[in-house]
Each structure stands twice: as structure tokens, then as C-alpha cells.
Amino acid sequence: MFSLRHFFIACILIPVSVFSEGEKVAIDLNESKRLSKQELEEKRSGWYATGLPVFSEDPVRGQGYGARGFLYQNGNRSDPYFEFQPYKYRFGAQAYKTTKGADYYEFTFDSPFLFDTAYRLKTSVSYSTNKNSQYFGIGTDTLREIQYRDRNQPTGQLKNGGSFSDLEDALSYRRPSSPGSIYPYESNVLYNTYEFRSSTATFSVDKTFWGAFRWIIAPEFSQNVIRTYDYPNGRIATNGDYYSVARDPSTGWGSSYPNGISKLTKDYQAGLINGYHGGNVNYIHIGLAYDTRDFEPDPDSGVLLEMNYSSSSKRAGSDFEFEKFFTQGKFFYMPFPKLFEELVVAGRAGLHYSKGEVPFSEYRYMWSIDGPINGLGGLQTLRGYRQERFIAPMIGFGNLEIRWRFGTFKFWDQLVTLSLVPFYDFGRVWNGYHDISTQGYKFSYGTGLRIIWNQATVILIDYAKSREDSQLFIDIGQIF
Asked: Where in the cell is it found (predicted)?
């Protein structure tokens, strides 16, 4: 069985075997990947650091506080790949907590041309907790409009549509308990909520060949723990986590009531999902990509086309047997390079398919050569909808952004660029590839600000709206 010990052994042995002296030869890179003249003039050489306190805002996880920092080594201007790579080495670390019980700690390393070879090495070790993870079901049924009863009462008027705040307001009222309960009333405040904890280690190697092609192989090891807030029917709920404050539908006064059965528990009891208690999920990812982007952290031009296959097997120490397929394309285009070189049109489209004994929490996870994507819904895919609002065996999504860099200045010898980013997102889910159609997509839109620090660190501020919600996001990095 694989473990973190095996992961660290692999981190030592694989570089020794693949990064041989014979690989230290010139790579015939696609000319489109060369940085522009202006970017080269502004690019720093040698070591430098960027770090800042993190004040994040997310409607699911709440307000977050912490710190994130990167240590860069850009190398020298005489280095063979100085004009092609965003940095030579990058070490990263972050730690933050949120007001709604989410913690995240991560250490990363990335070298696009390790030891001046054609190989790239990326590693990440992380631990995360989210006490407010969201679950709305699996499949195309999640595409239905929000549905709830007035003041959460069994005899209340059934309402369709509306916003998430309307649903949350309805669920804030107590209701008569489910059959078999020893309590007369219960709360549904946490009906769509569960706790998710994960320890994860990833290690990926890819190689550039034929100028702009890349193959990649990446083992990933994770241990997940899942807990719901349901109280056991017929038993006394002694743990305070099993209670929530709910309002009396007649008076509006709030009191503490035991939590009712959650959506996650209902689906588990009905045999609709796997992985209700978590478990070990180990992957091997392999992929092929065509990458002509000129500057990966904030591209002006080029495309990324990729196809990936992921396997989780009990032979590799996983508790589940399933497969995933993911393909996506990103494009970056300057429509008026001579007249308006600070304007970039950026777009992305992705399609993801899972089959086998897939844990419910893994349907949302899409692995890309650029890093993991969690959706559909939330910051990385469909801004304006709640995180992981739509989940199914097949997920399709797209994003379109207009990135206008409207100001550049120096601050304490640091280069800062400001970019205005209006955007439009769309996506939907299907139960399988036989159901794919062009109808029934969900849409959202909004405007963002990017604060680009020394070219490679991007601070993101996005405000998004959809038919169900409006959201403010503060994070690090472009979403694609």
C-alpha cells in the first residue's frame, strides 16, 4: 500500500533517474513561448520574494485570514531559458483560517526547466479542513432551480427558483422532526453541509518536446475524513456540533435544536453515493499537452490544449476503483497588438468524465497539468454559483475574460500592474456522455481586478452574479 513514506522516496529516486547529465542539452522551444521585449526588460534576475497577508472572502468558507509567500529564483539573463520561463525555481508556502471553519496549509515547489533540462518538477504537500463543505446531490437533478417550502414547514407553500439567500432563510426555521426521532423539532440549517478534511501529497514530472508539447506523469496520495452533523435518530445528541440555532416559525425567536438528517446522509442511506466516511484516494495522473503560452502566470498570447487520464486503484493503496478523463483548452489573444498591446482576450473550455466506484467528494475534482480544479460552481469554474453547486459524472464548463492592463508603476522597487477583468462563465453537468447536449447551461458574469506583482504573483479580486447568488472572491492567481 502506498503511503507518504513511499511518496518521499519517489521524490528522491525519480529525479535521480530522469534528470541525467545527458538531458542538459538545448531545447528547441516554440518561438511563441518567448517573453515579449517589454516583459524581458521588466523581468528581474536572481532571487526575490513576494509575500502578503491573505484576506480572503468566500460565501461558503467565510472571511479568511493568513499569509502566503513565494521565494523566486529567476536565474541570470545569460541562462538558456531565461527568455522562456516565468521563473527558474519557485518555493511557496501558505497558511490561513476562515471564520466558517476552513483551514489550509500548503508547501509547494516548482521548476519549469529543472537543472536546465527539458523536465519540469512540481511538488505539493497540503492539509485542509472545511467544516462548511457543500453537498447538493449528484447528477443532472442538481441543475433544477432552488426549491424549498415556506418557513421550512411540511405544509408550507412549495417555492421554486429564487436565490440562495431565500433557501437559507427558509432553512433557518425549525421544523417537526423526522420519524424515529426522540425530539419534537429539528433544525435544517446544515442540511447541505458536511465537514471535509484532507491530507494530500502530489509529485509531478513533465517533459517538453517538439518545441511546445509536454507529457506528464503525476502520482497523488490523499487521506480524506468526512463527517456530517446529523444527530443519531433515537439517541440523545450530546455533541454540541449536532445542534444549530433555528427560528420558531410563529414567533421568529431563535433556539437551539438538534440537526435533522442532511442531504448527504439521505443519499448515503438511499445507496446513491460512495465514500460517505472518506478514505484513502490515491491517483496516478498521465497527460499530454500542447502549450504555446508566452508567460504562464499571466499570458498575453498562446494556447494550452491538454488531455489527461487519472486512475485510482486499490492496487495503489486507494480504497476505491475508478477512472477519470479530462480535456481542456485555454487561449490567449491580443486583438490589437500594435495599437492596444495591454488588451488580452482569454478563454477556456473544459470537459470532465468520471466512471467507476467514484466517491461523491471526487466528482468535483478535475486534475489539470496546471493544477487541480474544483467545480462546478465557485471561484475556479462558475463564479456566482456556490462552490460545487453542480456535480455529476460528466462536467462541462467555459470562461471568457477581457483582461485590460490599465496601469503599471513601481512601489518600493516592486513592479505592480493593475488589470481590469470583466468575465462571463458558463457550464452544466450530465449523468454520462450519452446525455451531452447544448441545452440547459448555467451562466454567471461579473468584473474583477488583478494586481500583478513582479509579473509572476497575481492577486485576484472578483465580484460575480448569477440567478442564484452574488459572490465576492479574493485570492491569488488567475483562475486560468
From this structure: Membrane
Contact 59, 386 (CB under 8 A): yes
Q: Read off the pLDDT of residues 217-264 as tens digits, 9 standing for 90 and up.
A: 999 999 999 999 987 765 666 777 799 999 999 999 999 999 999 999
Q: Are 24 and 115 in contact (CB under 8 A)?
A: yes
Cis previous bond, 376, omega within 30 = yes
The domains located in the chain, with CATH, are 4-144+190-476 (2.40.160.50)
CA–CA distance, 247 with 241 (Å, rounded to integer)? 18
The set of residues, in sequence order, having a beta carbon less than 8 Å from that of 225 and lying 6+ positions away, is 195, 196, 197, 198, 277, 278
The residues near 170 (Cβ < 8 Å, ≥ 6 apart) are 148, 149, 150, 151, 152, 159
- Residues 404-444: tens digit of each pLDDT: 999 999 888 889 999 999 999 999 999 998 889 888 999 99
Residues 6+ apart with CB under 8 A from 320: 274, 275, 279, 281, 312, 314, 356, 357, 358, 359, 362
Q: Look-up: residue for cell 538558456?
A: 80
Would you state the cell numbers that stand for residue 372, as one nine-digit string?
A: 487541480
Left (φ > 0), alpha (ψ -120 to 50) or beta: where does 115 sit?
left
The CA distance from 220 to 287, in Å, is 14
